[in-house]
Structure formats: structure tokens, C-alpha cells
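User: two proteins, same treatment. go.

Assistant:
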Amino acid sequence: MALLTGSNKIKTAVFISGTGSNLKSLIKFSKLKKSPIIIKMIVSNNSEAKGLQYANIYKIKKRVFDFKNSLSEKKIIDELKQNNINLICLAGFMKILSKNFIKSFKGQILNIHPSLLPKYKGLNTHEKAIKNKDKYSGCTVHYVSSKLDSGKIINQKKVRVNKFDTPKSLAKRILIQEHKLYPATIMKIFSL
């Protein structure tokens, strides 16, 4: 795969709701020469999201939208289009995007989810894995479709569930794998 220079890298927006640890890992990845993406915007539905600090640290445009109605959604769609955003990475984004939003960026929205989909869609994935005595849990990167956590799976990473795991300890180990899986998946998609 040819190396991409800054001007022909894929303009990317990362959507967050919280601490932004996956965002930070994607920013670091985007700075690598071999990376196919450049992060142009950080979008959050939460003005208190700790991850928004990375916008200041790395001088990336940030926007906060409430995503509560079609008017605020139209604003964000327009802004993404004006900034020529061709890839949206959901990274701990705790809002469900509307069908209209997903249609506007069909095949251009990725999500990372802390379970081995199709198992445990939605929230409390680590609790569910432990409660069901699963030997493995993990994380999944998938395309976003209008059904929650149901889009085409692109990549997964298994993590062994230990006998003494708590949801917190399992979450911590899976998060480490998420930080590796998301960049690896982006490389996989854009080197095809």
C-alpha cells in the first residue's frame, strides 16, 4: 500500500461521550506515516466528556451536539459534509444515531464494541460475560447499521475471562485490546 501524505489521508471524525481512551489511541495512530486517516473533528453529545481535552492537546476541531432532534442532527451532518469527512469512528459514543444519519454516511461509520458480537449487544457486556461464565469475551469493530450493534463485523479480538474477574478487571483488559484492534481494523479496511 502506498504511503498517504497528509493531504490525501481519509478525513475522519471521532464521536465520543466519555474519557476518550480509544480516541487518544486513534489520534496516536493517525500521526503514524503508515496511517490512512487524519482526524479532523472530535464530536461529542456530552459537553463534560473528558475526551474533549484531546481536541485542545492535539489542536483538532471539536463540536458538541445534543443529537436530540432532527434539527441538531442536520447541523452535524452539514458540518461533517462541509469538512469532507469520509469516515466516522464511534469510540465510546453512547447515543444511538438515527436511520437518517446512518444513511447519510452509509458504509462510512465504524464502531468498537466491548464484546464478541453478536453476543451482548448494548450495555453491561462485561457483567453479562461473567454472569454467563463465558470462557472468552473481547471486542469487535463493526460497520454501523440502523440496528444496534448489528452491522457487519470487520474484526474481533478474544480476551480470556479469568476465574476471579470482575466486570472492572475484565473491562480494563478488553480496553487494552480495543486500543490495538481499532487501528488494526482501519489499516485492514483501507489496505484492501
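Protein 2:
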Amino acid sequence: MNEVVIVANKGFPLLAALQLLPLAGAALVIALRERGRAVLLSRLVAVAELVLAAMLLRRVDAASSALQLGERVDPLLYHAAADGVTALFVLLTALLTLLLTLYGVVRGLASSGRLAAVILASEAALMSMLTTVNLAWFALASVVQLALAAYLVGRWSTSTEENRALAMARFTQFQAFGWLLLVGGIVILAWGHADATGRWSFDLADLARVPAEGKFQTAAFFLLFYGLAVRTPLFPLHGWLPHVVQRGMVAVAPALLLGIKVGIYGIVRFVLPLTREAVLAWQGWVVAFAMAGVFYAAILALQQSNLRRLLAFAVVSHTGLIVIGLFTLDPAGLQGAVLLTVNFGLAVTVMLFMVGFVFRRTRTTDLDRLGGLFDRIPFIAVTFLVGGLAIVGMPGTPGFDAAHLVLEAAIHRFGALPSVATALGNVAAAGFLLWAFQRAFLAPRHETGAGEGRTAAIPRAEPMEYFVGGLSLLVLLVAGFYSTPWLELTEAALRALAARYGNG
């Protein structure tokens, strides 16, 4: 069944509001010259956007596999719709944006309204990517969001001018290449559709109804998949990430790029529904590369002496596990991969925030220069630890049920040996994250001179840091102990996707 059902919206244009509200908020924040008002306005807009995301969650019928609340303006190529998967990612985006506006205040980054405006504008672009069902619109929103992320990396880098230039160069090179691949895949899909029907279209429903054939589909699959894999990032297209995370901004830019994995969302929304034959033909190769990436990144993580760089390789390692879940093409595997993506977004953002708070006090993230921090900032240390445990899927976090579903589907689809190997990779990930926690917070601090005096001079956690970290932890743990509603939210949509591959 190739049909993609889109149900038109007859009420309030909620999806348009989700895209326009943060954009309008960004414009108003820039217009306000008074710092206090600009910061307050950005937080109010972020809260209002979270309310709209909650409204979407209530309005989407989770029992239906159709895309709902459809909005369309043909001259602008605007066509938006949502299902349970969309609602989950939209809620994650709104929540992380609110946390980022609060984090910017804590870190003292909001000396002007520019940072808040860029965060809100980036949220608007992300909302467009998550709600659109038009591939051309997706590509346009993607390049806007990447440009805003590049500005964050360059403008608020914590490194020297030389290192900042290197981070910017790697980011722009990789992301420009990935975006061109994405656009190439979109054009080929539309070309294949035109070859079959005589009419060009970038719309998901049209492309699914008359899918590209043969050479068109294979070429589109590779271009779309690898274009999105650069953003995700997936081994071996991850070369930009260690530079950006270590030498760029500590938390805001990485959280926008990694916490909201629109690359994974793009694979679920466009690649799997539109390139069925190519996915089946290359499924084994994709899974093999993903498994290799789990171990490759874990090994490199154990060799890092910088906490930020170690987190970058943790991202690459766990992205491999997510991709394995997607390419099981099994309902349980797809659900596990999507839930793991959301868990990962929350957990890595929590860890980046805590690293930012550590950097604020020590002006370093080199593990050799850290240590002995637990006595001074125990809350930050425990929050970092819980974030790390969530990434590896410990019980009580959303990653526990998600990893279980992924591994269960992998055993069913690929057999026990590859699945056990992947599980061992996850164990290795637990090892290097716990090792990083021990070195950064528990190990004695190696300093010349009065080491104890230097450690004692580190300021304790502030009320706003408790609030940001506590709110992040609360969301992470609530989602972990009550994962059933999120599984129910995505079940119908992902079961319909699996049914395209005969696995419903």
C-alpha cells in the first residue's frame, strides 16, 4: 500500500502557528533593545510554543495512521500535516527550546537579545521541518536552520580564533555537502515522479502514490539517506562533530543540532516511505555500517582526554543503535528507535548543560585538569551521571524500553550474533561515560600548588542551575517511568510504516 493519507484541518491552523510564533518572537526580541525585556520575552514565547505543542499532542489522533491537521498553500509549496511521531518531536523541540532560553541566562550568554532571537528562529525552522510534508520546503527550512547553527558556532565559540575557524570550516564543509546530497535526492524523486506522471511534485502524498522506479529510487535513497546521515550524524560522516562540540559553543548549538535529531525524523518521514525497494536492497549494508559505528565511536571515546569531545563520540556511537532500530523495518524496532531518539535528545542536552556549568567554573573541559568537583557541585555531578545513564538505557529512563525494543527487533530481523554485538557496544558506551564521570567529578584534581584551595574556590550550584537541571531531570525520569503514553502515541503511524515492508 503506497497511499499516504492526509486529513485536512478545518479549524485553527495550529501547525502554521507553531512555525510563525517563534519567528515573530525572534523579530520582537531583536527589536527590543533593553536586555531584561528581550530575555523575558524570549522565555514567554518559548512557554507559549510549548503550550501549542501540548495542544498538538491533544489534537492528534494517536489511533490513526493518517497525517492529520493538513494545511496547504499551493503557490508557496506549503503543505503541513502531523501524526503521532510529529507530535512527539514537536513537543521535544519546544521543551528543549525553553530549556535553552533558560540555560542562556544561567551561562550569561544573553547579554543582548541576539542569542535568544537565534534560538527562537532556529525553533521556527525546526518546526517547519517537522511539520512539512513537502520535500522542497523541508530542504529550505533545513538550510535556514543550519545557517543559524553556523552563526551560533562562530559567534559564541569558547575557543581561540584559530580553533573557532577550524570548527566553522568543518561544520560548513560537511553540512553544505550533506545539504547538497539532500537536495539532489529530492530532485531525483521529483524527476522520477515526473517521468512516470508527466508532472513534477515534491509532495509526500504525490511521491508515495506514484513512487520513483528503478535507478531513480536507488539514487534518491543514497542521496537522501547520506544527506540526512551527515546531520544525524552517522559513521562515517561524523567528522564535523568532534570539532564543533570541542571548539564551538558548549551547549546551545550542539543541543539544537543533536538534541532534536531531524536527520532521524527525515529518514522516518521521507526516506523509508518513498524508497522501499532501495531500502530493502541496501538494508544489510546500512545496518553493518551502523554496527561498525557503534564500536568505532566507543573505542575513540575511550581515548579522549576532553569531556566535550568524548560526548561527541558518544553521540556517534548511539546514533548507530538508532539506525539499526529503524532498519529492522519492524514495528517494535521503529518505535524503539524513535523513542530512543527522543530519550537521546533529552539526555545529551542534560549532559551538555552540565558540561557548560562545569566550564563556567573551571574554564576547561580537559579531563586531566578536572576532578574533585563532586564535593563542590554534587547536584551538577549527579545530573550529569543520570544523563549518561539515560543515554545507555538504564531502567527508569526512556532509553530502557527503547533499547529493549530495538534489540528485540534486531534479534528477530538479523539474528542473535549481530544483536549481541550491538548490545556489547552499548555496554562499552556505559563504560566510557562512567569513566568520564569518575575522572571529571570523583578523581583527585591534579594541580600544581594548592590544589585543595583551587577546588574549594569553585562556586557551588546556583538556584537557576538547580532549576534548569532539575526540570531536565524531571522530564527525563517522568518520560522513563511512564513511557507507555509515548509508545501509544507513535504506534499507529509506525505500524503503518512497517506495513509498507510487509511487517505490520
